[in-house]
Amino acid sequence: MEFRASHRYAHISATKARPAANLIRGLGVNRALDILRVNQTRGASLLNKVLESAIANAAQNDAVDVNNLVVSDARVDEGPLVHGRPRFRPGAMGRAMPIRCRTAHLRIAVTEKELG
User: Fold this and answer.
1) What is the pTM of this model?
2) In whole angstroms, what is the distance from residue 68 CA to residue 64 CA?
3) φ, ψ dihedrals at 11, nearest 5°
């Protein structure tokens, strides 16, 4: 059975959070938590919270052993801009430079490891 957790509209660019998601995909949850705690990027700390939430969702089911969980899917997708459109600040020679405050949707799914 698959258990999911997500953090939508996170105030981080998707390109900054994707490397941390690539590190944990396919690993056991205990190993993934260790890697995210050691990694000192902002994306790793956000993904750590989402992973802990997915583990807590799995722990609600008594038939699931939490130590046998594996990160089956870790995705970071782009979200909308913070104000829905780019804002502008003054640039050189009278031009306008856009400010794009990006967001991201962080999604993690964990499944039980198949013994066999």
Assistant:
1) 0.91
2) 8
3) -80, 70
Enter the CATH code of domain 2-112. 3.90.470.10
Q: What is the DSSP string of the chain?
A: -EEEEEEEEESS-HHHHHHHHHHHTTSBHHHHHHHHHH--SHHHHHHHHHHHHHHHHHHTSTT--GGGEEEEEEEEEE---TTSS-EEEE-GGG-EEEE----EEEEEEEEEPPP-
The mean of the pLDDT values for the chain is 95
Q: What is the mean pLDDT of residues 71-98?
A: 95
Indicate if the pLDDT at residue 116 is higher than 70: no
- CA 5 – CA 108 distance, rounded (Å): 6
Cα gap 3→70, rounded to integer Å: 10
- pLDDT over 80 (residue 115): no
